[in-house]
Specification:
By secondary structure, this protein is of the alpha+beta class. The chain has helices at 24-34, 41-53, 59-66, 70-82, 109-114; strands at residues 57-58, 87-93, 100-105. α2 (41-53) crosses α3 and α3 (59-66) packs across α4. The longest helix has 13 residues, at 41-53.
Length: 121
């Protein structure tokens, strides 16, 4: 058995001219329906919200976007941070004084490239 190195498959790397004959509709099906079976829906919602807003979002905003509790959002954000997908860009004191409210965004490409991969799901 031979093991070959395969290039990473991401939405950006699957350009229409190089997507092995897949139509744009097929690509959307793969990323919207099939990939979501591998990635937790909350994490997909976080990514979508951050891309849509184009700015850091607070934990509360991420929770609202994913329609989950802040505690669950905290768990998902921590997992994504450990995997190098998100980083804390600021922390603000909450009005209720209970817990600080971190804001998350994607790391810079140079930082993400040097981070070791983690096993997260």
């Amino acid at each position: 058995m031979r093991i070959k190195i395969a290039r990473k498959q991401t939405p950006h790397s699957l350009l229409p001219s190089t997507s092995a004959g897949l139509s744009t509709e097929d690509e959307h099906f793969v990323w919207e329906k099939l990939a979501s079976r591998l990635i937790h829906p909350s994490k997909l919602a976080f990514i979508h919200a951050l891309l849509e807003h184009g700015r850091p979002l607070t934990l509360g905003e991420l929770a609202e976007a994913a329609e989950i509790t802040e505690e669950h959002a905290r768990h998902q954000a921590k997992s994504m941070k450990e995997a190098g997908v998100l980083e804390v860009v600021s922390v603000a004191a909450r009005a209720d004084g209970k817990v600080d409210d971190p804001s998350y965004f994607f790391p810079k490409q140079s930082q993400a490239a040097t981070m070791p991969p983690s096993a997260t799901a």
